[in-house]
Model the fold of this input.
Amino acid sequence: MYKNKFRLSGSAAAILALSTTAFSGTVLAEQQPDFNYIGVAAENNNEYSGSDTGLRFEASYELQDRYFLSGYYRTLGNNGFSNDDFNSFAVKGGRYFGLADGLTADFSVKAGNVDYDVDDSNFYGIEANLRQRIGMFEVHGGLGWVDYTDGGTDTQYIVGGRAFITPALAIGVDFNDSEFGEGWLLTARYHW
Done:
């Protein structure tokens, strides 16, 4: 119980720091984030017992009027990328709002399944994220809440940044707390 409270405090401080950075000084922002993309991430997660590396595949598609659908598939293993001992997937639907030039908030609901090799559970939840685009860079952070049908609830977060090498290709680093605990992700996305 104490551990979850500490995570929330740490994630709240990170979101506050990103928000303060986004609102301070002159912002050289370009456009609102593009919600049409496919991506892949290499993941390092040492917190979850018996699992440390994996891959995450994700995609998002923007519908009309700033609504979007997105989803991901993750596989983690204890012997590198080839051993998929733990898997999860989720589908999300949400809406984003432009708050200022380059600053966007999005809110979504999600549902999915996580397989811990022996046990598995369905889950559903909500998320809220902030993104700030400054020139070729984007910083982002978010908070989420998940309820596992075969377990308890969890507060999750993500903090990270991306650099757009071209208008369509971005690479980045994220730190998140997810259904597999805390971990680092090296990300690559192609936007269209």
Q: What stands out?
A: The chain is about 10% helix and 60% strand. The longest strand covers residues 119-134.
